[in-house]
Amino acid sequence: MKDWKAIAAGSNLAIPPADLERVAGSLDALEAAFRPLAARIPHSTEPALVYQPEAEAE
């Protein structure tokens, strides 16, 4: 699991400690839910790619 608090500190994000606890807990729960799902994706599956070109300047 990722250390979300260390990532926030290393990114110089000014998040109040109480908010950081709440956010890190939510991110931990999401990561725990998605890891088993991601592990079941076969290695032969192509990743989805979305490309949205920017409009040309006139």
What does this structure look like?
With 58 residues, the protein is mainly alpha-helical. It has two helices and no strands. The chain has helices at 4-10, 17-39. It is flat. The protein starts with a helix and ends in a 19-residue tail after the last helix. 0% of the residues are buried.
Features:
mainly alpha; single chain; 52% helix; 2 helices; 58 residues
The structural class is mainly alpha
Largest sheet: none
How far apart, in Å, are the first and last alpha carbons? 47 Å
Q: How confident overall, as mean pLDDT?
A: 90
**How much helix, percentage-wise, in residues?**
40-55%
Principal-axes shape call:
flat
Radius of gyration: 17 Å
Number of strands: 0
Query: If helices are DSSP runs of H or I spanning 4 or more residues, what is the number of helices?
Result: 2
Strand content: under 5%
Written as H for each helix and E for each strand, in order along the chain, the element string is HH
Spans where pLDDT lies below 50 across 5 or more residues: none
